[in-house]
Amino acid sequence: MTAELVRGQNHPLSQVRLEIRISAGSPVLAGATLGDEQGTVHGAEWVAHPGAPTLPGIEVSPQAAADHRLAVDLAALPEAVHRVTVLLALPERPGGPLRFGSLTAPRAAVTGLDGAEIARFVLTGLDAESAVVALELYRRQGAWKVRAVGQGYAGGLAALLADQGLPSAAALAADVHAAVARSLARAVPAPPPPAAASAPGSPEPRPAGEAAGHGPADGRPTGGPIDYTHPGRRPGAAPPPARPPAASSAAPAAPDGQPPRPVAGDAVGWSMEERLYNQVWGMFEDLARTTAAYRSAVDFAESRLEKELDQVLADPRARLGAAGDAAREAAQARHTQLVDQARAALDRDVAQLAAESEVVEPALPVACARWDNPVWHGYRVPAEPPMALRLGDLHLPESAPLSIPLLVRLPLERGLWIDSGPAPGPDDVFLDSAETRRLAMDTAVALAVRLLAVHPVGEFDVQILDPAGTGAQALLPLTRTGAVTVPPLTGAAGVADTLGRLTRRVDLVQMALRGGAAESLPPDFDAAQQLLLVNDFPHGFDDRAVTQLRYLADEGPAVGVHLLMVADREDAAAYGPLLDPLWRSLMRLTPVPDDHLADPWVGHTWTYEPSLVPAGSGILQQVLTEVTAARTKRK
Known about the structure:
five-stranded parallel sheet; 21 strands
């Protein structure tokens, strides 16, 4: 049951891995500070904010938004940290709200990883404050609790940080607002509202991107059309804010009235890899929002047409005859005009995104490149791990064939589940079980090879559990090159041995980290990250093995043990709800195109396509041969 907190009330936390969800009526910045036993914040490195969104045990959003999800792992916090304070502040932007009293009361909720709410708090009573402490998580006698705070600061973020004892609070607050300003430069404006004449008695056209009965798609206050275009792609737009010297880039000049020619790396970041990563996510957001604008405009046109036709039918004098036909034709013409205008705006934005994709895709580093990208043919084992990995591609029906790479940060924070259950094939004919399992293993092997290839020698290893031996053919690229140091293990004994060994590893590393003695691990301890590839789960698993696998899925990623599982959920139906937390903890991917992923901005359902090796390509063999040679040379 969810605890409804009031200001000052606390509630115990029984979980260490949490999400803190913030909902506000306007874009706000969210951050968190780490405090000692007295709540003192000792330096800027103790503050997670949009300019530095990740600290040990906590990650916040790198931009202002109406809704936030902050990830918290209490077990991963430094030992000196006894308090995590969640703060909100209003961005400093022209025309933006200056005080929380002018907004809907923000809401904060603490949830588990399965989305179940543990506690919630509505921040009422705010007035002139422009920054507020929403919640604090604090440790008392080894146990963690959450307290509803709701303390506002009229002096803004600088006053809030200074109250927590942070040196140079004003300077850090200025840096935070500067980082938010850079992220707001990527916010997307709405296409101009349809310029259609309104019939007497009919509603005025709404701004594109605003559905009937709802606010703007990005949660900003109404009062003008929302711009759904990246500022760098806006004709006649002001230049983007200055970037750090290492991240500067300029688009080639374009003729007047034309959008600038796209440039790979045209985003904020200190390295080309980071800039490309941010650019891809910017394209992802732009396509989500411009599609939202199109869908909202079409919905408005449909509702307007329906209302006008209802008006015609409601008037007996105009229902029949030439007058009725003329009214219906006029309503249909207005509907067609609105839809055509919306489609033209969408086509314009999609064309610009497609042009940008054409320059970004060839520039992506190996870890983020498609398997048919020529960069793989010059592959060499890297000296440093990458910041992100490509899991596949995403697209929407309105903008096919444009697709956006699905990139995730490394190290992986969640395990991956390749769903080998029934799936539709070409012409909506369902593939048989054997075919989907084969495709699922091919997808898993391609991901395992990519993970192995993008890490330096000795820093990543793959272990394979194939209890029934059904994946032997798909695993050949890994086994025949010697890229895996231990051959795939089969049977119940292999399952028990592997899971027992990895469970002990997780326990050992956790104890060392919590005791502040990471350097005291045994001399023969293999510090490489481990990927456990499991085929045909739950075949070969007894109750103990299932429990160990759940433990690895929950606790492994934080200490370098990652799970890649190929399974059909129906095969594990006999376990009932026991395995529901396992499925929810894993990121579900499919071996065939499938609509099951949603974006974090407007919640569209995107079609996911796995990153597969082209038929007949020998690139996996070439890459793994290079990996094996580098490993041999290192020895």
